[in-house]
Amino acid sequence: MPDAPRILYCHCAYAQVVPPDVKAAVLRRLCESGAAFDAVADLCEMAARRDPALKRLAEGGAVKIAACFPRAVKGLFHQAGADLAAERTEVINMRTQSAEEVSAALASADMNLNLPQGKTEAAAAAAAARKT
Amino acid sequence: MAIKDQTTLRVVLYEGAGAQPLGAADRFAALTELLERGYTVTRTGTGTVAPADRSTLLVLGRFDEGRVPQAEDAEGQVAVHFEDISGQDTAAIAGRVEWHREQRGAARHGEWKPWFPVIDYDRCTNCMQCLSFCLFGVYGADATGRIEVQTNDNCKTNCPACSRVCPEAAIMFPKYKAGPINGDAVTAADLGRERMKVDISALLGGDVYASLRQRSDDAKVRFSKERDDKKALAERQKCLTKLATAGDIPVEVLMSLPAPDEILRRAGEAKAKAAAALAMNHQTQS
Ligand code: SF4
Ligand code: SF4
Fold it and tell me: Is residue B99 part of a domain?
């Protein structure tokens, strides 16, 4: 049986963009569970410092990340030289989802792979137009 | 020291064999406190966590009979320290972690709001408009001439201006209030941004820096005629306020811009950098 996905929780400590009650409730549930997890203060700050810890967080099996928009999380890891693998990453958005939804998604063994992938049609078309 | 060059401390809350688990409320309080102070914390339990990296590890635990384990990384790459937190409340735990951080010379967090552009390479067409636009050297190009964010500490907090000049909506600021700049999906409605850019261009006469140059020249003419430097300054402020309204740029950021001549010098430098990167990119692609 494959290992259960790892859990990574982002506390978004240096801005008020994730509702404080949502992140507190999600963290509380994680603390009440018996699950092992990695909690980071602020993924943005880690990406800015090109923290090598992001590499280890991105590597090694399936991972569920409770943070914000998948497009932003993918970009942050990429910018830090620690690409997330689309085939084993789920990003759960604490900016838009309720604490119950986030906690249920973290607890579920199912993976909802949702990293945006590849060039969008619009971007590809724009790129092609520029080349001609 | 640039934040990229600082080392960090990784905290592990150990609750396995040889240690007593914390109650859920204590665990939550300790984690919240450490996260608020900027630490990365791993809680052990059922399931896997990320492997160790080369950051210094501080292992906290309520060790049986206060017996602090001795361990070291067999490969000698990771420094491991232990701290018995039996009977300690949240404030005391945080105090001990701070002490270890200072002892190891690890980074103090929270002194800089992590505000910087993040490029969505799925959308970016490497047009270099962001590089030509930014006066603070945040952008650069890699060895193949590809755009990248190089000096994120230089970015002006809460200023999303470069995301407004990107024709592909490829520049995100994850801590921005609204989409798509915050990383939300780019929708058809967002393509109306093009219209907004046209409006900004119209407002500023086509080019932000050309507009500043014009206003600077006008101000100089008046200055020489009237010897009234207050008027020249008022002129600059008027232009900057228009920019602030159009581009959602904090006025403090605009007011901290250098004098028009310096702006023009930096804009010229940025444009030259962009042109060189484009040439390099064409070479490596062909
Ligand atoms: S990744 Fe998202 S949730 Fe995490 S710190 Fe950045 S903006 Fe906040
Ligand atoms: S302006 Fe946008 S599309 Fe052009 S190089 Fe910068 S991020 Fe890429």
Answer: yes
User: Closest Cα to atom 3, ligand 1: which residue?
Assistant: A67
The answer as to whether B145 is a domain residue is yes
Instruction: Give yes or no for residue B74 having a pLDDT over 60.
Output: yes
ipTM of model: 0.91
> B207 in a domain, yes or no?
yes
Q: What is the per-residue pLDDT for B214?
A: 59
Helix H or strand E segment including A39: strand A37-40
The predicted model scores a pTM of 0.85
Print the domain residue range for B41.
3-104
Residues B161 and B67 in one domain: no
| CB contact set of B155 (below 8 Å; sequence gap of 6+) | B115, B116, B117, B136, B138
Atom number, ligand 1, closest to the C-alpha of residue A13: 5
Domain boundaries of chain A, sorted by first residue: 6-131
Instruction: Tell me the chain A residues in contact with residue B10 when contact means C-beta distances shorter than 8 Å.
Output: 53
When divided into structural domains, chain B yields a total of: 2
Distances B274 to B129, B156, B258, B259 between C-alpha atoms, Å: 8, 20, 21, 22
Residue B250 and residue B255: Cα distance in Å, rounded? Answer: 9
Q: Which residues contact B256 (CB under 8 A, 6 or more apart)?
A: B156
pLDDT value of position B132:
84
Q: What percent of chain B has pLDDT over 90?
A: 37
Cβ separation B121–A78 shorter than 8 A: yes
Structure tokens at A113: 């792979």
Q: Is residue B85 located within the same domain as residue B134?
A: no
